[in-house]
Glucose-6-phosphate isomerase
Amino acid sequence: MAPLWRALEQYRDRVAARPIAALFDADPARAEAFSVSAAGLMLDYSKTGVCAQGMAHLLALADGAGVEARRDAMFRGAAINETEGRAVLHTALRDPDGPPLVVDGVDVRPGIAGTLARMEAMAADVRAGRVRGAGGAITDVVNIGIGGSDLGPAMAVQALAPYHDGPRCHFVSNVDGAHVHDVLAGLDPARTLVIVASKTFTTLETMTNAATARDWMARAVADPGAQFVALSSAGDRAAAFGIPPDRVFGFEDWVGGRYSVWGPIGLSLMLAIGPERFRDFLAGAAAMDAHFRSAPLASSMPVLLALVGVWHAQVCGHATRAVIPYDQRLARLPAYLQQLEMESNGKRVGMDGRDLDRPSGPIVWGEPGTNGQHAFMQLIHQGTRVVPVEFLLAARGHEADLAHHHRLLVANCLAQAEALMRGRTLEAARAGLSAAALGGAELERQARHRVFPGNRPSTVLLYSRLTPRMLGAVLALYEHRVFVEGVILGINPFDQWGVELGKELAVSLTPLLEGTAEGGAHDASTLRLVAMVRADGVAPG
Ligand SMILES: O=P(O)(O)OC[C@H]1O[C@H](O)[C@H](O)[C@@H](O)[C@@H]1O
């Protein structure tokens, strides 16, 4: 790989001074040539510095890293999560009727299809009022989970609001008692279903919130267990919590937490939109899977998106990537992608146990547009750092009577992408000021502040509108992009050892805060802060 990286870096140095806009002048067909369509999505990456020759280098990198072989190994059920010795088969969840898929000697398809059928029966019963609370039909569902057991369903439930025709869904994740308190405060325990979502069923936050929710329910209904459901790989622990086996929806260790919305962890989404639309959501993802499996590297949307990402993060050294959906209902997508991308590729040691010799995956952040335009876009346009932007945009909204809103939304998204690339020269800034009747020294003083350097890269992911199917395709696209970037970096994107140390230290600090232990192997700053918290924020004497 080293010679391929070197060739790419040399190429980067050769084209460093070339503006993106010049690529359009040189190639009238650039907009089409640097776009790709799949599964109802269209990705335009023409407003980036990647050109045909750069792409050839990037594709050589993907090829050299063995992306295709690794992809095939993943879909085949090989144990590609090497640090945990596990297969990676969340893709099988969205293809429940696919051909036999044998993992450790067992065909996993019947289990997947069976669990999906049980979820569908449960969802249908709740939605039809056959599964009821002590006070009548279920009006509200509370999903208690964190990380992958929260971000996916919470994001998707919000994204698909126009399709809701089931009970209202709420999400509690934070161990901060304020979260569970505020969510439960507005609900009737006799008509609420609590979903405890935890792959391991040991996560501190979830277990703490689940116990609190059970106490809340027990104060109002005689049999709180009857209004609890568990989504977990650890059926025994769910049973110990008091949830009967027929209310436990299991999944295997080959489904990683941040890849789990496609299975039982998606139950809240299924309750909200119904089993049929949930199947559409799976089908959209399956369509992207089929594309990823069959398209050559050079026309594979996940591969191209990954290569643009590698160009920006590892080749050009841009440390962050902004994801800006011009789609208000995707407000939680950046948070979802933060887990997906940063927990997957935020690693400094490669699969071979050696330190990476280039940056890991980038910092991902974002907020919906147009809101971002009135907040952080200033820095992206005129700051000293380059922040590649990924825009997401629906051609149509769901609000037919508000089409003028949507036109303004689209115009703003496209304008941002254009402005980032084009910028505004000093001459243009001067002309604008003189048209505004400014001149002389004042004009010169003002003009430089109005210059936009331009040449700032962005991509646009366009889809017709955010249906369940489209959302499935978008999420699968991002999953595979993260996978391809991981393969190219030589990272295992499927473990997350970096979340462990803080958890262990929290366990040892809790007795100090309770006053049941003193000192221990903690630094002086930490111990002082503990003492101050115990003294209610007042500095210790
Ligand atoms: O589903 P759970 O086992 O409760 O895990 C919830 C989350 O916590 C862990 O700390 C990991 O960082 C996440 O990847 C995971 O999704």
